[in-house]
Amino acid sequence: MNIELLTLSEVVDVNGQAGNFTVTVRKNPRYIDMDKCIACGICAEKCPKLVKDDYNLGLSRRKAAYIQYGQTIPLKYAIDPETCIFIQKGKGKCLACEKFCPTGAINFKDREQIVTLNVGSVILSPGHKPFDPSVFDFYGYGRIPDVVTGMEYERMLSPGGPLHGHLEQPSNGKTPQNIAWLQCVGSRNTNKSDNGYCSSVCCMYAMKQALITETHIPGGGRQTIFFMDMRCHGKEFELYYNYAKDKNIQFMRARPHTIEAGPGGVGVKMLYSTEDGRKVEEQFDMAVLSIGLEAPRDALDLAEKTGIRLTPYRFAETGDFNPVASSKAGIYIGGSFMGPMNIPSAVAHASSAAACAAADLVSARGTLTRKKTYPPEADLAGQAPKIGVFVCSCGINIAQHVDVTALTEYAKTLPFVAYAENSLFSCSTDAQGMMGKIVKEKGLNRVVIAACSPRTHEPLFQDTLKELGINGYLVEMANIRNQNSWVHQKQPEKATQKAKDQVRMAVAKAGRIFPLAQMEVPVVPRAMVIGGGVTGMTAALKLGDQGYDTVLIEKSDRLGGNAWQLRTTARGEPVRPMLEALIAKVKGHRRIEVLTTARITSATGSVGNFTSDVEADGEVRTFSYGIAVLATGAAESVPVEYLYGQDDRVVTHLQFDRLIADDPDRTASLASAVFIQCVGSRDENRPYCSRLCCTHSVKAAVDLKTQKPDMAVFVLYRDMRTYGLNEDLYKKAREMGVLFIRYDLENKPQVSRDGDRLVVRVTDPVINRKIAIDTDLLVLAAAVVPNDVADLVSIYRCATNQDGFLNEAHPKLRPVDMAADGLFVAGIGGFPKPLEESISQAQAAASRASVILSRDVMYLDAIKSHVTEHCDGCAVCLDACPYQAISIIAYAENGRTAKKVETDKALCKGCGICQAACPKGGILVHGFTIDQLQAQVYAALDLPN
Amino acid sequence: MSSAFEPKIIGFLCNWCAYAGGDLAGIMRFQYPSDMRAIRVMCSGMVPPDLVVEALNKGADGVLVMG
């Protein structure tokens, strides 16, 4: 209700300043009235004009009247003016869509409109453009049929794609058996493309495609990934890499230089050199080019209109300490317009932009929001079910394949049905009005809608009932369109029979449903932030700036955490001044209360209303709050190898940062320095990648070379993971003469003392020789280890992964929410990440939290578990519940102590695993009780119940 | 088995995945046999095993629990 979508629109101009922008938007014509379109697809079916389907990258065709894909939002068709016969050729031509559209939604008089919007903040999230590999003639893309891009391959693999997931070789239509992926096509390359950066996502997507391919080919086939460095730097990505190796995906460290067509134009011949210098020519059925990400096509144009600055790669310029702020106040960047990033980073980044945009608008908050109100609900207690059945024709979508007249007549014969009718479109405003009238007139107290999916339309019909003063949960739907008429188009009789069964099942359930109340939870508008590092402070600041009282708890005696030991960001911005300013702001903020030497000792309640005891300086205080952000952080591990602790010249990253900051003369006097990567990461004990060390080492190497250009600097690594724009730093380091030597886990460097000399021995795979390096300094990229959060895990009943990092609710789509509502995670306590990414997550957590804190009352869905009189406290359900929403309580009954369980409605997600586990019907889920499910089973089998 | 055999299949479909997939199959007009009767549930884990057995005992030829 509070989001207005402008589709087919483009920004013409942005004027004004933070707090008061005027945005001019051109709305291009859709030629289909969105209010009338019911997405039945008849326009597309009747349209005679076939054109290339952009969504499937030209691998299939669509009509000129189209939707991009099945999940399009809004789900409304559009007419493509570039290809529509009528629009192109004019009067007297075609108009098939107009003729057949059942709702009269086609409007060829639709014209471009200019809309002016007055807004306070602007967020730019135009995404990225996939790299076009046709500039590389040596890959043969566009010339050799069996060379495809990763994007095209993605569509080919998709069950919803042009091949329905049945993989085919483009040249001959056969199932390919032997497929090669080529990494870094249009990334890490300044020859022919200007993309020096790493696109950050391709290693993972190639691996995913290889693994899925394995399941799509009978016998599994053979998959080979050609790579320079496998960059699996995200949470649990290394685990996935190990899994792929276990599944026999071949990883070949080589960069094929030429692809030629195979014999007879089928397959490809690939030429490459292996690491040990052998020249290889190998045949594959297909080659997939793992294309990278580029700035969007209209980046320059958008920058000009909005007045923001771009980087040389044409991504939006942002600051390290506010990674969503563009160069212009009030304009924020969300997602890959800032630089290549994967889904979880982009989602967090977008939330982060929302937090900043909202903080700017705090003085006007709530002034333009809309809220719906309903009449009080009538009490229907004790009334026998009186069911009305409304059968929808959906134009001809349903009526064409299901005999709706017979269905309506049939419905009238079912028990408790007092009324049944058929309408052309049950969802139209007119039909809704009529339905309301009939419900009132006939005194109906249950409604069955036989139409489309409850997933899309139940809220609409619930709303209709609520407007009549009837509980919204008294509606039941029979999905006779998506799951019937659309999928049984050639079997009208069977479809009609199925529709009757579906209606009978819905009526059977409707007879057993009752009004349900949405629980109201008053929200305490206070935030609890645990952890006073940069992440925690940033989250607290954004929450405070939005006007929420915030308690910031730090276990040590000072704020700042790891940042005290960091010198600069990867791009060279000094950390200390930012840190000191941040601490001063947090301490001076009137909304933020800082407690140091503090810890939480208890937590009760749930989303909107938690209560905790906090022990600070020996004193216990109790706070109530609506949400909590867990910014518990991580630490640098203590290495147990490479003479660490036995020789002063062996230091960790953080020690190095202090050294170069405190004693630059010493570092400038060194003749040589060696960095060893993955010290305690990516091994048996800690299988994960610590993400930030590659960039940190490269930055440190560059700094040393800057101090003293003739210093011999070596980096011993397994895969250089300078992902995204950090790749520039890697390139710079090589240009400055830093030597990078790769080693394997099986053949790690050896460090020894030879008299006073510190010697590092390693095998260089390029020259295939053992070398010994005398070094004055050895810097170890010690693994990042999460701080111990066992106490918080038990207090909040949340979870960590196998490595001890706090878990998010969903690894892709909800990267800062935790599984329990009202809890958020940000920073390196969730996974290792550099400062700027931690700041992005902190702001994202503040944004997600404010969704809850901005309301006085939260309404929880009524589909929740409840305990019945059959519960005897056996507690089987306690362990079954994945949300820890069930607890056991003792109570007195007839002078004895009895037990039963109790559910916490705020924690319960209504999954009903408890109901399946309970042997005696002691716990059920509203709206999906065993009785209701059983009624549907009996009705499906046409048995009396 | 004769080709005329038309099984009665009860499908318990998780609202968040299988049922959504059923809806999407509709949008994409995938044609499939009409023998299943779907019951929407909020999680495939909420289906009591007893009910699956009961459905089979009462004449269902098959029960699909999808989630």
What does this protein structure show overall?
The complex is a heterodimer of chains A (945) and B (67). With 945 residues, chain A is α/β, with parallel strands linked by helices. Chain A folds into six domains: 29-111, 2-Layer Sandwich (Alpha-Beta Plaits), CATH 3.30.70; 129-294, FAD/NAD(P)-binding domain (3-Layer(bba) Sandwich); 387-515, Rossmann fold; 522-633 and 787-858, FAD/NAD(P)-binding domain (3-Layer(bba) Sandwich); 636-783, FAD/NAD(P)-binding domain; 864-925, Alpha-Beta Plaits, CATH 3.30.70. A five-stranded parallel beta sheet of chain A has the order 10-17-11-12-13. A five-stranded parallel beta sheet of chain A has the order 27-26-25-32-43. A five-stranded parallel beta sheet of chain A has the order 34-41-35-36-37. In chain A, a hairpin with a 2-residue loop joins β29 (604-606) and β30 (609-616). In chain A, α5 packs parallel to α6 (237-246), α9 (404-412) packs parallel to α13 (492-510) and α18 (693-707) packs parallel to α19. Chain A is globular, with a radius of gyration of 31 Å. The mean pLDDT of chain A is 94. Chain B has 67 residues and is of the alpha/beta class. In chain B, strands 2-1-3 form a three-stranded parallel beta sheet, sandwiched between helices. Chain B is flat. The relative contact order of chain B is 0.34. Chain A binds chain B through residues 41, 70-71, 160, 453-456, 479, 481-484, 486-491, 494-495, 497-498, 501-502, 505, 863, 910-913, 915-916, 925, 927-928, 930, 933-934, 936-938, 940-941, 943, and chain B through 8, 10, 12, 15, 19-20, 22-32, 34, 37-43, 45-49, 51, 54-55, 58-60.
Low-confidence stretches of chain B: none
Largest sheet of chain B: 3 strands, parallel
What is the radius of gyration of chain B? 13 Å
Distance between the termini of chain B: 29 Å
Q: Secondary-structure element sequence of chain B?
A: EHEHE
Output the strand order for the largest sheet of chain B.
2-1-3
CATH architecture of the largest domain in chain A: 3-Layer(bba) Sandwich
Taken as a percent bin, the fraction of beta residues of chain A is: 15-25%
Question: CATH first level of the largest domain in chain A: which class?
Answer: Alpha Beta
| Overall outline of chain A | globular
Strand order within the widest beta sheet of chain A? 10-17-11-12-13
Number of strands of chain B: 3
Q: Mean of the pLDDT scores of chain B?
A: 92
Number of helices of chain A: 24
Helix content of chain B: 25-40%
Helix content of chain A: 25-40%
Poorly predicted ranges of chain A: none
Going by helix content, strand content and strand pairing, the class of chain A is alpha/beta
Distance between the termini of chain A: 42 Å
